[in-house]
Amino acid sequence: MASQAQQAMLDKIKTQKGFIAALDQSGGSTPKALRLYGIDESAYSGDEEMFNVVHQMRTRIITSDAFSGERVLGAILFENTLDREIEGMSTAHYLWQKKRVIPFLKVDKGLADEANGVQLMKPMPELADLLVKANAQDVFGTKMRSVVKMANHEGIKAVVEQQFEVGKQIIAAGLVPIIEPEVDINSPEKAEAEALLKVEILTQLNLLNEGQEVMLKLTLPNQANFYKELIDHPRVIKVVALSGGYSRDEANEKLAQNKDMIASFSRALTEGISAQQSREEFESTLDTSIENIYQASIA
Asked: Is 143 an annotated catalytic residue?
């Protein structure tokens, strides 16, 4: 039985225009995110200090006047962020109760070594406990990422089967999984990989039961509107796009060509903001970024 908050979040994600902010850089990608924000590794020592600094960055973004539920539908958090507070409230509660931004939680534990042209997700032995924690904080959904590097049918099938297997566990816990089989934008077989991926995702979607709904997070495709069948599928709440290494302008341009696909950008969202900016500069830069991504999402 969905709570009142979950039902309100579901209605929002299904009916309102906007995009999802990916604020979920974890251990390995945090130093790079901080460097782009103008904070060098010499400014902190050890993981705890690093996560304190990155939480300050995320707090600055989330508390910004530009960041609200009018244009930002949801935000994906890293577990460490879920454990922290903003203005005396848990981050997830702050997002929903103060900003009307739907909280999602990254649940994967990173990528396994490459095999068959893909990287599966590492095992997630603590997933059940993490889902209990997420539910306690009114988190709406989760996100987990695999990577496809080559058009290897066996590898792509394994990626999608693993994603949906874990996705069903997440659905059973009352949350909505964002299934993210990223296709590497630098793959020499990107278009071929996308064709295989679409077939495998459709196969798994058709195996879902009534009431089992997912979201998909996919690399912007080579061919515009290539994922229309997935967007229109009755088991799919929303298809969101990752920026995948494209610049914000390039990602926005590609996104605008894909009707009813919305952004879930990470690095492209924070491009141009820095720790050194004054409040006015920061607010203005973030507002422009959010507006540009919003417009590309509703195109």
From this structure: no
Does residue 180 have an active-site annotation?
A: yes
| C-alpha–C-alpha distance, residues 11 and 18, integer Å | 13
Listed in sequence order, the DSSP H helices in the chain are 4-15, 30-36, 46-62, 79-82, 91-93, 99, 127-136, 153-172, 190-207, 228-231, 248-256, 267-270, 279-298
Residue with tokens 């969905």: 2
Partnered with residue 182 across adjacent β-strands are: 147
What are the structure tokens assigned to 89, written together? Answer: 């409230």
Residue type, 115: A
The structure's pTM equals 0.96
Q: How far apart are CA 82 and CA 133, in angstroms?
A: 9
Q: Which of 12, 99, 149, 180 is catalytic?
A: 180
Catalytic-role residue among 12, 217, 238, 254:
217
Per-residue b or e along 161-199, where b marks 16 or more CB atoms closer than 10 Å to that residue's CB: ebbbebbbbbbebebbbbbbbbbbbebebbebbbbbbbe
- Which residue type does 63 have? T
Q: What is the pLDDT of residue 199?
A: 98
Burial annotation 27-60 (CB, 10 A radius, 16+ → b, else e)? eeebbebbeebebeeeebeeeeebbebbbebbbb
* pLDDT per residue as tens digits for the range 225-261: 999 999 999 999 999 999 998 999 999 999 999 999 9
Length reported for the chain: 299
